Amino acid sequence: MVCPKCGSSNVNVSSEQATSKTRQKKMGCLWGIGRWFLIVCTCGLWLLIGRRSGTGKTKYKNNTVAICQECGHKWKV
């Protein structure tokens, strides 16, 4: 592979993270109603138990890039 800027063949190819996106899945309204029901029935003792957080999934997008070791020019492969 040759650098388009300086013509050097001293090029390093690597992968870099472009973007990441997190989707959060929250608890439904039935969970909230049940939680408030337990709080009322136990006279507030249920508040001592921490709130359960939702689950999330993260997706990553990666790009392959080449970096010239002579001039530092970077481009997508």
Task: Describe the structure in your own words.
The chain has 77 residues and is α+β, with helices and mostly antiparallel strands. It contains one helix and three strands. The chain has a three-stranded antiparallel β-sheet with strand order 1-2-3, with no helix packed on it. The longest helix has 13 residues, at 29-41. The relative contact order is 0.37. The model has no long low-confidence stretch (mean pLDDT 87).
Largest sheet: 3 strands, antiparallel
- Rounded average pLDDT: 87
Secondary structure class reads alpha+beta
pLDDT < 50 runs, ≥5 residues:
none
Tell me the radius of gyration. 26 Å
Helix count equals 1
Tell me the fraction of residues in β-strands, as a range.
35-45%
Tell me the helix content. 10-25%
Write the layout of secondary structure elements.
Blueprint lengths: L10 E15 L3 H13 L13 E14 L5 E3 L1
Antiparallel strand pairs: 1-2, 2-3
Give a brief outline of the structure:
This protein is of the alpha+beta class and 77 residues long.
